[in-house]
Amino acid sequence: MGSAARWGFAIYLAGKDGYQDSALPTGDLAGVPEDALDCAASLYLGGPTVWT
């Protein structure tokens, strides 16, 4: 049974016209919605080099 506080995370890939399951920068496959929003915003606005 899952938790309502932890959510899976997927990124929409326009080239594939679909979603792909993703891990958060922490390496977790699920987290709070705020972590997913921060991750997606960082990827779209800054690219994956934001975390390096």
Describe the overall structure.
This protein is α+β, with helices and mostly antiparallel strands and 52 residues long. It has one domain (7-51). The protein has one helix and four strands; from the N terminus they run E-E-E-E-H. The strands form two sheets. The protein has a two-stranded antiparallel ribbon with strand order 1-4. A hairpin with a 4-residue loop joins strand 2 (10-13) and strand 3. The chain starts with 6 loop residues before the first strand and ends in a 6-residue tail after the last helix. The mean pLDDT is 82.
Q: Could you tell me the mean pLDDT?
A: 82
Strand content: 15-25%
Supply the number of structural domains: 1
Give the end-to-end Cα distance, rounded to a whole number of Å: 35 Å
Note poorly predicted spans: none
What is the molecular shape? globular
Helix and strand element order: EEEEH
Order of strands, main sheet, comes to 1-4
Helix content: 25-40%
Structural class of the helices, strands and pairings? alpha+beta
Describe the structure using short key phrases.
23% strand; 52 residues; alpha+beta; two-stranded antiparallel sheet; 4 strands; two-stranded antiparallel ribbon; single chain; 27% helix
List the helices and strands and how they pair.
Elements: E1 7-8, E2 10-13, E3 18-21, E4 30-31, H1 33-46
